């Protein structure tokens, strides 16, 4: 499982001209699932996302987590996080989880975040999504379950 977190002032997802998810202060998070990986990685990833202290305190230091800032997450499915571009110019996606199973994982991870008190907005799995965001900082953190 890979997650790319961007600390944002605001972010939104639009599909077919309609906004499917919109947040203010928080994370715009791209999430991809790896073929053969189980859901046991969810808890580790959840703890890391919730516990990261990358939001500014009253002194301007990155010292607060998402809950302490009452932040939200715009969670977007992104199978291309498992792109393999080592050979040639057209990336392969053989490491990315198959569509139906990845959709199940995505929906389950959304619910896990919500059940832990995080407001989560989403895109539409598998859709052609247009993402707009204002990266705050900029702060971008890449999390990989292989390294947690």
What does the model show?
The chain is an alpha/beta fold and 148 residues long. It has one domain: D-tyrosyl-trna(Tyr) Deacylase, Chain: A, CATH 3.50.80.10. The chain contains 2 helices and 8 strands, in the order βββαβββαββ. The strands form 2 sheets. Strands 1, 2, 3, 6, 7 and 8 form a 6-stranded mixed beta sheet that branches. Strands 4-5 form a two-stranded antiparallel sheet. The longest helix is centred in the last third of the chain and has 17 residues, at 99-115. The model has no long low-confidence stretch (mean pLDDT 97).
CATH topology: D-tyrosyl-trna(Tyr) Deacylase, Chain: A
| Beta-strand residue fraction | 35-45%
Largest sheet properties = 6 strands, mixed
Number of domains: 1
Summarize it.
It contains two helices and eight strands. A hairpin with a 2-residue loop joins strand 1 and strand 2.
Question: Could you outline the blueprint of secondary structure elements for this entry?
Answer:
Layout: E1 2-15, E2 18-23, E3 26-32, H1 41-51, E4 55-56, E5 62-64, E6 72-77, H2 99-115, E7 119-122, E8 130-144
Parallel strand pairs: 3-6, 6-7
Antiparallel strand pairs: 1-2, 1-3, 1-8, 4-5
């Amino acid at each position: 499982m890979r997650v790319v977190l961007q600390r944002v002032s605001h972010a939104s997802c639009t599909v077919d001209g309609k906004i499917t998810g919109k947040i203010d202060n928080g994370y715009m998070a791209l999430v991809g699932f790896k073929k053969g990986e189980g859901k046991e990685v969810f808890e580790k990833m959840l703890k890391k996302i919730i516990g990261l202290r990358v939001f500014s305190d009253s002194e301007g230091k990155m010292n607060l987590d998402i809950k302490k800032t009452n932040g939200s997450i715009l969670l977007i499915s992104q199978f291309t996080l498992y792109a393999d571009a080592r050979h040639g110019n057209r990336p392969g996606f053989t490491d990315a989880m198959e569509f139906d199973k990845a959709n199940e994982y995505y929906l389950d991870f959304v619910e896990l975040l919500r059940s832990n008190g995080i407001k989560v907005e989403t895109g539409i799995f598998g859709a052609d999504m247009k993402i707009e965001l204002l990266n705050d900082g900029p702060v971008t953190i890449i999390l990989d379950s292989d390294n947690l």
